[in-house]
Amino acid sequence: MIIKEWNAIKKRQLAPVYLLYGDEEYLLHETKQLLIRHVISEEEMDFNFSLHDLADEASLEAAIEDAESFPFMGEKRLVFIDGAMFYTAEKKKESRQSTEVLETYLESPAPYTVLVIHVPSEKLDERKKITKLTKKNATVIEAKKLTVNDIKGWIKSKVADHRLQIEDEAVEKLTVLAGTNLFMLAGEIEKLALYAEGSDVIRVEDVTLLTPKSVEHNVFDLIEHTLNGRTAKAIDLYHDLIRQKEEPLKLLALLSGQFRLIYQVKNMSGKGFSQQQIASRLKVHPFRVKLAGQHASRLSNDHLKTIMLELADCDLALKSSSGRKEMILEMFLTKLPGFTR
């Protein structure tokens, strides 16, 4: 996790150069916002902040010239370089810029500037000279997808920013109801913090009262109800989702994705892979693998194959029907209990 780097930024223990990359957009966004808040004041934004987007015709030379300029009426300049694809193996236009001027700057960065380089990519090309030089002379922050335990730690950290604590059970409930999207979780934490004003602790009852279930979790509940023979509850939940204007085709896609994951988890677990290994190989969050594993033991491979074929038939029917499309998926849900062991 990047909590250590965040804490240093909050204390204004600033590096002269930061390199940001990874596939967790929220962490990238939050790191940029922290730097903006703690490097320069709001009054200095017009004078001492600049953004150079290499994907939008900006030049690396102009960005470095900016970084070498003295701050105006302040202690620091903050210079962002976005779209630095020359750190990757991809053959995009912005990856063909000459990096010599940046290489020279990295050898002796300006002490009065914080230069932030953002690489919109999951990984860096470690073979490149510019990558090696940056890793040697800059603070590199990888914003990667968090593990379930990391997300729980991140939730506690965000709650602590509001000078509050949160019960362990409340953390668990929040991830179950809201999912693992950090933007969504951040919004829910803001709401819970406002509700808990005057108290010291966010409790599980608060989370249950205020946090709506994500669509993905409602789909998990649909499967849970049907596989346990609670067809009436599943149909009631499905009708609620339709009343909330959720499209049957979207719900079908989520159901198909979940059953495909159940099938993959079942097969990989049978070959001895751990939940973490499965998540890494399938490039899905470990939390989703955990949920899929709970269902996998109730379904045979043959049943799962039959379900996938039924879902394919539903997809064709939904895309070709001009009648009441919501009935097509409802019929599928009534059949599901017959596929359990």
What topology emerges from the helices and strands here?
Elements lengths: L2 H8 L6 E5 L3 H15 L5 H4 E5 L6 H9 L8 E6 L17 H8 L5 E7 L9 H9 L1 E4 L5 H14 L3 E2 L1 H11 L3 H14 L5 E2 L1 H7 L4 H13 L3 H13 L4 H23 L4 H8 L3 H11 L4 H20 L4 H11 L6
Parallel strand pairs: 1-4, 1-5, 2-3, 3-4, 6-7
Helix pairs in contact: 5-6, 7-9, 8-10, 11-12, 11-13, 12-17, 13-15, 13-16, 14-15, 16-17
Walk me through the structure.
It is a single chain. The protein has helices at 3-10, 25-39, 45-48, 60-68, 100-107, 129-137, 148-161, 168-178, 182-195, 204-210, 215-227, 231-243, 248-270, 275-282, 286-296, 301-320, 325-335; strands at 17-21, 49-53, 77-82, 113-119, 139-142, 165-166, 201-202. It contains 17 helices and 7 strands. It has 3 domains: 3-142, Rossmann fold; 148-210, Helicase, Ruva Protein, domain 3 (Orthogonal Bundle), CATH 1.10.8; 215-339, Zinc Finger, Delta Prime, domain 3 (Up-down Bundle). It is an alpha/beta fold and 341 residues long. Strands 2-3-4-1-5 form a 5-stranded parallel beta sheet, sandwiched between helices. It has a two-stranded parallel sheet with strand order 6-7. Helix content is 58%, strand content 9%. α13 (248-270) packs antiparallel against α16 (301-320). α4 (60-68) links the parallel β2 and β3. The relative contact order is 0.09. The mean pLDDT is 89. This is DNA polymerase III subunit delta. Its EC number is 2.7.7.7. One of its GO terms (molecular function) is DNA-directed DNA polymerase activity. Residues 216-336 form the DNA polymerase III delta subunit-like C-terminal domain. Residues 18-144 form the DNA polymerase III delta N-terminal domain.
